[in-house]
Amino acid sequence: MEYFDIAETWSRDQIAEEQAKRLRSVIQRAMRSPFYAKRFAEAGITPESIKTVDDIRKIPFTCKDDLRQCYPDKLACVDREEFVRMHCSSGTTGSPVAICYTQKDLSTWADLMARSMHATGLRKKDVFQNMSGYGLFTGGLGIHYGAERLGMMTIPAGAGNTRRQIKLLNDFKVTGIHILPSYAMHVAEQVSAMGEDPRKMSVKRALVGAEPYTEETRRRIEEMLDIKVYNSFGMSEMNGPGVGIECEAQSGMHIWEDAYILEIVDPDTGEVLPDGQVGELTLTTLTREGMPVIRYRTHDITKIIPGECPCGRKHRRIERILGRSDDMFILKGVNIYPMQIEQVLMSMPEVGQNYLIKLESDGNRDTMRVQVEMRQENYVDDMRLLKALQEKIAHRLFDEILVTPVVELVYANSLPVSEGKAKRLVDLRKESKGI
Ligand code: AMP
Ligand code: ZN
Question: Which of 184, 332, 348, 392 is the most buried (most CB within 10 A)?
């Protein structure tokens, strides 16, 4: 195994020892911020109260609302002049969450990102195109600095303008890309529409993340482009991408435990759950100096994969994100995640690359309408065939979610394609009830 960073070779004991040490020092540092000074004083937390990593359980959680209330600078642990960059989380509701970085924070982040890319098999000789938006979104500059730190020739293509993206991919014989899942399938389709074979392009590896997607979607992207897709995970509150990555074994995402403490908690009770149990991912920054965040409830639902990865790294792995607790919706008393629907749709060869879930209400009854793009090759004029396909999809969905949706078949490429994170769910129930 070739490593980028010595921390990748640490044993579990080394990880635990370093984490306890770093946790103590990050608490000391966090107390310089107005927010944590108050929070820790109220809870009686001092660096001395932390002896082992498990002592983290004594510390109160930090929630998204806390961070919103800290906007713009109540989390700062250094003087304003020490900050050299800020990013925001992409949430479209409520006030934003801002994260500021010192020079050292940017460097640590670039190292983590370069290490992540290296773990997927990318090397200095690769040519890398970053096909996600730049700006406040961390998937732009975060990925960019990591790619440069690894030494790759890096193309800051940004989001959108698909024809130009494809031209750059071809002209510079790009071998590695970073792209959002929904956009990856769109690009592949556009290459085909231009009369080229997307499988013949020079791209070999893709980091795909920033939003939830299923194993079925991964397989589709791999198949369409004849590449390997590695799930890449992060969030602004934890720097951005580079928190977790799938290594070449493609069996869950290693969370870099030298930089983050990983916990899975029961979303209702806050109780820490054992490895293997599904709950809410909770993360603590261990190496950030400007704005440490302690026990952050991410809303992302996943589990720790028990056991060791075949690659030999001891940093634990999490399962693909099942969804966000705030994405989950309840229909007829059943809890449903959009990813359960994607999993069914993307496993059906007749179904195209895009879908949209709409929740509606006639005032008495809630219904779910699923708009599903068909694959062009499967267009038929025969109503009976269309009806049969609609029923087949509805049945498969029922088997997964125990609710029968209204399935609406639509033309390929007719549903909106987002340049950023895809919007999979539209909840019209409140509007139709006139609330
Ligand atoms: P932002 O900070 O705005 O970039 O959003 C971070 C959020 O994006 C995370 O909390 C996750 O909900 C989501 N996310 C990022 N990467 C992934 C991934 N690989 N799989 C699923 N969700 C992801
Ligand atoms: Zn591994």
Answer: 184
Ligand 1 nearest atom to the CA of residue 212, by list position? 21
What distance in Å separates the CA atoms of residue 19 and residue 50, rounded to the nearest whole number? 11
Give the pLDDT band (50/70/90) at residue 435.
very low
- CA 233 to centroid of ligand 1, rounded, Å: 6
DSSP 47: G
Across 101-124, b (16+ Cβ under 10 Å) vs e yields: bbeebbebbbbbbbbbbbbbebee
pTM above 0.85, yes or no: yes
Q: Check: CB of residue 128 under 8 Å from CB of residue 174.
A: yes
Residue with CA closest to ligand 1 atom 5: 235
pLDDT, position 364: 85
Please give the structure tokens belonging to residue 11: 């044993």
The residue nearest atom 20 of ligand 1, judged by CA position, is: 212
From CA 341, how far away is CA 377, in angstroms rounded?
22
Q: Does the C-beta of 281 come closer than 6 Å to ligand 1?
A: no
The secondary structure of 351-417 as a DSSP string is: EEEEEEEEEEE-SS-EEEEEEEEEPGGG--S-HHHHHHHHHHHHHHHHHHHSSPPEEEEE-TT-S--
Q: Which residue has the higher pLDDT, 432 or 80?
A: 80
How far apart are the CA of 96 and the centre of ligand 2, in A? Answer: 34
Indicate which atom in ligand 1 lies nearest the CA of residue 231: 19
pLDDT of residue 93: 59
Our answer on whether the CB atom of 321 is closer than 6 Å to any ligand 1 atom is yes
